[in-house]
Write a structure and sequence with these properties.
Blueprint: H1 3-14, H2 19-24, H3 34-53, H4 71-81, H5 90-96, E1 98-100, E2 110-115, E3 118-127, E4 130-133, E5 142-145, E6 151-155
Antiparallel strand pairs: 1-6, 2-3, 2-6, 3-4, 4-5
Amino acid sequence: MTALNRVPSLMARAGTASALTIAAVGGSIVVPGIASEAAAATHATKALKIAASKKGAPYRYGATGPSRFDCSGLTLYSFKKAGKKLPRTAAQQYNRTRHVSASSRKAGDLVFFHSGRSVYHVGIYAGKGKIWHAPKTGDVVRLQKIWTKSVWYGRVK
Protein backbone atom coordinates (compact mmCIF):
# COMPACT_ATOMS: atom_id res chain seq x y z
CA MET A 1 0.00 0.00 0.00
CA THR A 2 1.45 3.39 -0.97
CA ALA A 3 1.51 6.39 1.31
CA LEU A 4 -1.09 8.09 -0.87
CA ASN A 5 -3.45 5.12 -0.49
CA ARG A 6 -3.08 5.32 3.30
CA VAL A 7 -4.35 8.92 3.50
CA PRO A 8 -8.07 8.02 3.53
CA SER A 9 -7.54 5.38 6.23
CA LEU A 10 -5.45 7.80 8.30
CA MET A 11 -8.18 10.42 8.02
CA ALA A 12 -10.86 7.90 8.93
CA ARG A 13 -8.94 6.80 12.02
CA ALA A 14 -8.11 10.33 13.16
CA GLY A 15 -11.36 11.91 12.05
CA THR A 16 -9.45 14.81 10.55
CA ALA A 17 -5.87 15.29 9.48
CA SER A 18 -3.73 18.34 9.34
CA ALA A 19 -2.15 19.49 6.11
CA LEU A 20 1.23 18.53 7.61
CA THR A 21 0.04 14.98 8.26
CA ILE A 22 -1.28 14.65 4.74
CA ALA A 23 1.93 16.07 3.28
CA ALA A 24 4.03 13.74 5.46
CA VAL A 25 2.40 10.69 3.91
CA GLY A 26 2.64 12.05 0.39
CA GLY A 27 -0.93 13.24 -0.07
CA SER A 28 -2.23 16.59 -1.16
CA ILE A 29 -4.97 18.88 0.03
CA VAL A 30 -6.97 21.48 -1.84
CA VAL A 31 -7.76 24.69 -0.01
CA PRO A 32 -9.76 27.47 -1.68
CA GLY A 33 -7.56 30.45 -2.55
CA ILE A 34 -4.29 28.58 -2.11
CA ALA A 35 -4.07 27.47 -5.74
CA SER A 36 -4.09 31.06 -6.96
CA GLU A 37 -1.33 31.95 -4.45
CA ALA A 38 0.73 29.01 -5.72
CA ALA A 39 0.21 30.10 -9.33
CA ALA A 40 1.23 33.66 -8.41
CA ALA A 41 4.37 32.29 -6.74
CA THR A 42 5.22 30.32 -9.89
CA HIS A 43 4.84 33.40 -12.09
CA ALA A 44 6.87 35.47 -9.64
CA THR A 45 9.68 32.89 -9.54
CA LYS A 46 9.80 32.75 -13.34
CA ALA A 47 9.79 36.56 -13.61
CA LEU A 48 12.63 36.78 -11.09
CA LYS A 49 14.72 34.29 -13.09
CA ILE A 50 14.00 36.16 -16.32
CA ALA A 51 15.06 39.48 -14.77
CA ALA A 52 18.26 37.86 -13.46
CA SER A 53 18.98 36.49 -16.94
CA LYS A 54 19.09 40.10 -18.19
CA LYS A 55 22.06 40.94 -15.94
CA GLY A 56 24.29 43.45 -17.72
CA ALA A 57 21.63 44.64 -20.19
CA PRO A 58 21.99 48.40 -20.67
CA TYR A 59 19.49 50.88 -19.22
CA ARG A 60 17.58 52.93 -21.76
CA TYR A 61 14.71 55.22 -20.83
CA GLY A 62 11.43 53.86 -22.23
CA ALA A 63 12.93 50.49 -23.26
CA THR A 64 11.00 47.27 -22.63
CA GLY A 65 13.52 44.70 -23.86
CA PRO A 66 14.62 42.28 -24.93
CA SER A 67 18.13 43.77 -24.80
CA ARG A 68 17.64 47.22 -23.16
CA PHE A 69 15.38 48.22 -20.29
CA ASP A 70 14.23 50.98 -18.01
CA CYS A 71 13.03 49.98 -14.53
CA SER A 72 9.37 49.30 -15.31
CA GLY A 73 10.33 47.93 -18.73
CA LEU A 74 12.32 45.19 -16.98
CA THR A 75 9.44 44.25 -14.68
CA LEU A 76 6.93 44.41 -17.56
CA TYR A 77 9.15 42.21 -19.76
CA SER A 78 9.94 39.70 -17.00
CA PHE A 79 6.34 39.17 -15.94
CA LYS A 80 5.10 39.09 -19.55
CA LYS A 81 7.56 36.26 -20.31
CA ALA A 82 6.35 34.53 -17.12
CA GLY A 83 2.73 34.76 -18.33
CA LYS A 84 1.45 37.84 -16.47
CA LYS A 85 0.47 41.20 -17.91
CA LEU A 86 1.53 44.44 -16.22
CA PRO A 87 0.91 48.05 -17.22
CA ARG A 88 3.83 50.15 -18.47
CA THR A 89 4.92 52.52 -15.68
CA ALA A 90 6.09 51.89 -12.11
CA ALA A 91 3.13 53.86 -10.68
CA GLN A 92 0.63 51.94 -12.85
CA GLN A 93 2.25 48.65 -11.81
CA TYR A 94 1.95 49.61 -8.14
CA ASN A 95 -1.77 50.26 -8.63
CA ARG A 96 -2.21 46.84 -10.28
CA THR A 97 -0.55 44.73 -7.56
CA ARG A 98 -1.78 43.35 -4.27
CA HIS A 99 0.09 45.38 -1.68
CA VAL A 100 2.00 43.39 0.94
CA SER A 101 3.96 44.38 4.02
CA ALA A 102 7.73 44.24 4.22
CA SER A 103 7.42 41.33 6.65
CA SER A 104 5.25 39.43 4.11
CA ARG A 105 7.40 40.13 1.06
CA LYS A 106 8.61 37.18 -1.01
CA ALA A 107 11.11 36.72 -3.79
CA GLY A 108 9.40 37.78 -7.01
CA ASP A 109 7.33 40.55 -5.43
CA LEU A 110 7.73 44.01 -6.91
CA VAL A 111 9.53 46.65 -4.87
CA PHE A 112 8.30 50.20 -5.42
CA PHE A 113 10.46 53.17 -4.45
CA HIS A 114 8.52 56.27 -3.54
CA SER A 115 8.83 59.83 -2.44
CA GLY A 116 5.72 60.73 -0.48
CA ARG A 117 2.87 59.21 -2.46
CA SER A 118 4.72 59.21 -5.80
CA VAL A 119 6.26 55.97 -7.06
CA TYR A 120 9.42 56.68 -9.04
CA HIS A 121 11.19 53.30 -9.41
CA VAL A 122 10.47 49.56 -9.42
CA GLY A 123 12.47 46.34 -9.17
CA ILE A 124 11.87 42.66 -8.47
CA TYR A 125 12.61 41.44 -4.96
CA ALA A 126 15.31 38.76 -5.00
CA GLY A 127 15.37 38.00 -1.26
CA LYS A 128 17.86 38.98 1.44
CA GLY A 129 17.11 42.69 0.99
CA LYS A 130 18.14 42.78 -2.69
CA ILE A 131 16.41 43.55 -5.98
CA TRP A 132 16.99 43.01 -9.66
CA HIS A 133 16.46 46.31 -11.44
CA ALA A 134 17.48 48.64 -14.23
CA PRO A 135 18.79 51.58 -12.18
CA LYS A 136 19.43 54.60 -14.43
CA THR A 137 21.00 55.98 -17.59
CA GLY A 138 24.58 54.79 -17.94
CA ASP A 139 23.98 51.72 -15.76
CA VAL A 140 22.95 48.10 -16.45
CA VAL A 141 20.44 45.58 -15.10
CA ARG A 142 21.89 44.31 -11.85
CA LEU A 143 21.29 42.87 -8.41
CA GLN A 144 21.52 45.52 -5.71
CA LYS A 145 20.81 45.93 -2.02
CA ILE A 146 17.71 48.02 -1.30
CA TRP A 147 19.16 51.38 -0.26
CA THR A 148 16.19 53.04 1.44
CA LYS A 149 13.27 52.27 3.71
CA SER A 150 10.96 54.31 1.45
CA VAL A 151 9.67 51.27 -0.41
CA TRP A 152 6.35 49.52 -0.83
CA TYR A 153 5.86 45.92 -1.93
CA GLY A 154 3.33 44.54 -4.38
CA ARG A 155 2.49 41.02 -5.46
CA VAL A 156 1.46 40.51 -9.06
CA LYS A 157 -2.04 38.97 -9.14
